[in-house]
Write a structure and sequence with these properties.
The complex is a heterodimer of chains A (about 110) and B (about 120).
Chain A (H helix, E strand, L loop, with lengths): L3 E4 L2 E4 L5 E7 L5 E8 L3 E10 L2 E4 L7 E2 L9 E3 L8 E8 L7 E2 L3 E5 L1
Parallel strand pairs in A: 2-11
Antiparallel strand pairs in A: 1-3, 3-8, 4-5, 4-9, 5-6, 7-8, 9-10, 9-11
Chain B lengths: L1 E4 L3 E5 L4 E9 L5 E6 L6 E6 L3 E5 L2 E6 L4 E6 L8 E8 L11 E3 L3 E6 L1
Parallel strand pairs in B: 2-11
Antiparallel strand pairs in B: 1-3, 3-8, 4-5, 4-9, 6-7, 7-8, 9-10, 9-11
Classes of the chains: A mainly beta (about 110), B mainly beta (about 120).
Chain lengths: ~110, ~120
């Protein structure tokens, strides 16, 4: 089954404690993105990747890092989480840049 | 820059027709998507328009006018399960200020369908 998986689905952490949210897709897509979704603000792109070792900033990259060492994986790293990073995070992949997005199930993060 | 506007909320009754509008002002344009998102779930693809006109897909249709920077999603024969947020997203085009292939989302329209 074609899918995008994310882990963990729910996470409560404290300010400053590094965390990684994993994302994996099995569709051999070259293009992957991370979004955050906040009430009243909609989906905002954090980072995106056009291919292995090729990443670029989206609209809200501050406080986040990504890596793309393999085509299928695109982890999101929060080196020092802060409460304003409390949000719902989605990973997505697509066959083409800006093409139909296949979203993961989401990761709900609470930073205390 | 990118500016995508859609109403925050809409309500309708079962069996009715509803039209959700989306206007955009972007420095590049290479197509427009509509996604559906149920509460607590991931967005799912509904439609994609790159040329002017109406695209029909069952109970859902999507219209695009590039000259007016306008699109709408038309939902017919509304059902309770259509209660969801509907997201308009513009695909960036090869113009200055708009990265080719980037997607820019509106804030979503929360549709509530009453029995």
């Amino acid at each position: 089954e074609a899918q995008v998986t994310q882990n963990p689905r729910y996470l409560i952490t404290v300010t400053g404690k590094k965390l990684t949210v994993t994302c994996s897709q099995n569709m051999n897509h070259e293009y992957m993105s991370w979004y955050r979704q906040d009430p009243g603000l909609g989906l905002r792109q954090i980072y995106y990747s056009m291919n292995v070792e090729v990443t670029d900033k989206g609209d809200v990259p501050e406080g986040y890092k990504v890596s793309r060492k393999e085509k299928r994986n695109f982890p999101l790293i929060l080196e020092s989480p802060s409460p304003n990073q409390t949000s719902l995070y989605f990973c997505a992949s697509s066959e083409l840049p800006g093409g139909t997005q296949y979203f993961g199930p989401g990761t709900r993060l609470l930073v205390l | 820059g990118q500016n995508i506007d859609q109403p925050t909320e809409m309500t309708a009754t079962e069996g009715a027709i509803v039209q959700i509008n989306c206007t955009y002002q972007t420095s590049g344009f290479n197509g427009l998507f509509w996604y559906q998102q149920h509460a607590g779930e991931a967005p799912t693809f509904l439609s994609y328009n790159v040329l002017d006109g109406l695209e029909e897909k069952g109970r859902f249709s999507s219209f695009l006018s590039r000259s007016k920077g306008y699109s709408y999603l038309l939902l017919k024969e509304l059902q309770m399960k259509d209660s969801a947020s509907y997201l308009c997203a513009v695909r960036g085009g090869p113009n200055r200020g708009s990265t080719l292939g980037r997607l820019y989302f509106g804030r979503g329209t929360q549709l509530t369908v009453w029995p």
